[in-house]
Specification:
With 322 residues, the chain is mainly α. It is built from 14 helices and 6 strands. Among the domains are: 35 residues, no CATH class; 89 residues, Cytochrome Bc1 Complex, Chain D, domain 2 (Orthogonal Bundle); 91 residues, Cytochrome c-like domain (Cytochrome Bc1 Complex, Chain D, domain 2). Strand 3, helix 3 and strand 4 form a beta-alpha-beta unit. Helix 8 crosses helix 14. The relative contact order is 0.10. Pathway: Energy metabolism; oxidative phosphorylation. Component of the cbb3-type cytochrome c oxidase.
């Protein structure tokens, strides 16, 4: 925070604490000039107010809390930009990439700083890392179990499912059925291949699916003709003359989708004949895809989760169709 906010927060925090202390001291002094326990003359509904001091336990508790708050603010961050004497912080601030996070974590360890997030991550790896390795590896502890075998292990699949819900459900949905622009992982239709190795590679390294924009090259009529031909490949009823013209223009698409439109998993080019549409299968959606193109990105998870977790996650995704 800037200097003004730092000073403002510090003044408000300390002012509140010392204000409470001053109020406590003021309340412990007898200002009535009367004997303790004597009536003050204030009566309401038959109840008379007596000149009694604050209860001792209440006063001592208030003093303890004031002293505790001062020690706490001295040891931990809380007064504006003051970092605290212990150097504790909840997490690294202003981190914009995984590389920056790792560099900051290494620097904090070298300086002996107490970063709660780093400590919790280390602790989690100590506690749960062994369990991940137990499920992912063969008995020798060096060779990964076959993904197809792990897919039959109920305990391993439960762990994989939780990894999926924590990291993948935001895009693919909690039921893995995807959404517009995000693949359905349960229908056995794979842009980049559905073998165990291909699924793991997709999760490990990520994917980028780029569909070029053909609107300028084909023109508006050309876009409609190609859309008609593409829709006809999956059995849709279209204008036959328009589809025939679109078939002649489809040569520009065949390089990726194949001459028969069945796609190419090496390029992540969708199969256009099975009626499964990533960005929608209406005529308007297909024309929009041809006209403006698409750019889909699947992030790489190896650096975030590590290969052990990715191996279990790939097994869960594989189990959804096998």
């Amino acid at each position: 925070m800037n200097t003004f906010l730092s000073v403002f927060v510090t003044v408000i925090s300390l002012g509140t604490i010392f204000g409470c202390l001053a109020l406590l001291i003021w309340c412990t002094k007898d200002k009535m000039g009367m004997e303790e326990g004597a009536p003050t003359g204030h009566t309401f509904d038959g109840i008379s107010e007596l000149n009694n001091p604050l209860p001792k336990w209440w006063s001592y508790l208030f003093v303890f809390m004031i002293v505790f708050s001062l020690f706490y603010l001295a040891l931990y961050p809380g007064l504006g930009n003051f970092k605290g004497l212990l150097g504790w912080q909840s997490s690294h601030q202003d981190i914009r990439s995984l590389e920056e996070s790792r560099a900051a974590a290494a620097e904090s360890r070298e300086q002996g700083l107490l970063v709660q997030y780093d400590r919790e991550m280390i602790r989690a790896d100590e506690v749960f890392g062994a369990r991940f390795r137990e499920l992912a590896y063969e008995a020798d502890g060096e060779t990964y179990r076959a993904i197809a075998d792990i897919a039959q292990d109920a305990n391993a699949i439960k762990v994989g499912q939780r990894l999926f819900l924590q990291n993948c459900a935001q895009c693919h949905g909690s039921d893995a059925r995807g959404a517009r622009g995000f693949p359905n992982l349960t229908n056995n239709d794979w842009l980049w291949g559905g073998s165990p190795e291909q699924i793991k590679a997709t999760i490990m390294h990520g994917r980028q699916g780029i569909m070029a924009a053909w609107g300028d090259m084909l023109g508006e009529e050309g876009v409609k003709e190609v859309a008609s031909y593409v829709l006809s490949l999956s059995g849709r009823r279209v204008d036959e003359v328009e589809a025939q013209k679109g078939q002649a223009r489809f040569a520009v698409c065949a390089a990726c989708h194949g001459a028969d439109g069945t796609g190419n998993t090496a390029l992540g080019a969708p199969n256009l004949t099975n009626g499964i549409w990533l960005y929608g299968g209406s005529r308007a959606a297909v024309e929009e895809t041809i006209r403006y193109g698409r750019h889909g990105v699947m992030p790489a998870w190896n650096d975030i989760l590590g290969e052990d977790k990715v191996h279990l996650l790939a097994s869960y995704v594989y189990s959804l169709n096998n």
